[in-house]
Specification:
Length: about 170
């Protein structure tokens, strides 16, 4: 009987070890997902975040974003979190610190793509939302950024004079 229990114990230990190893590998893969900081136009950066945003990745994102703000002399950053499934209190506070640090560098951050779950979590954990400039989706964030930067986007037809229109229109 003792040998049977020993065998069962070893099997369980092996299973748990392999499961924890798999989880560590997956967590490392998630941390390695790159978060690009994209310059859309002069003084406008977009940061699309996809996947789990843990404290380590949030810190790396902050460092990368602040460097990009400095390098590109950015005045507005659109931080799109449409692809982030969940946010805990540490990550939410880290995002707020990133917004504050960006503000100290003279940059306005617009957060877009808050899911209903993330919004409820932020309210439930008591995050100070007065510091966040939020817009529903990425397109709205870009439109707000353009407004802040003084850009006006026109359709080609609107921007052309009568003699500038292509033939047949």
């Amino acid at each position: 009987m003792k040998l049977v229990f020993l065998d069962i114990g070893l099997a369980i230990d092996t299973y748990i070890f392999q499961r924890e190893r798999t989880i560590r590998i997956q967590q490392e893969a998630i941390r390695e997902i790159p978060t690009p900081v994209l310059q859309v136009r002069e003084r406008l950066l977009i940061v699309p975040i996809i996947g789990v945003l843990d404290s380590t990745r949030a810190r790396r994102l902050t460092d990368q974003l602040l460097q990009a703000i400095r390098d590109n002399r950015a005045k507005v950053v659109v931080l799109d979190i449409t692809g982030v499934p969940a946010v805990d209190s540490r990550v939410a506070n880290h995002v707020l610190q990133t917004v504050d640090a960006s503000r100290l560098m003279g940059t306005t951050v617009i957060v877009t793509g808050l899911s209903a779950e993330v919004a409820q979590t932020l309210v439930a954990i008591g995050v100070d939302l007065t510091k966040l400039n939020t817009v529903g989706d990425l397109q709205g964030g870009i439109e707000e950024a353009d407004r802040l930067l003084g850009y006006k986007v026109l359709r080609i037809e609107e921007g052309m004079g009568q003699h500038d229109r292509p033939e047949g229109r």
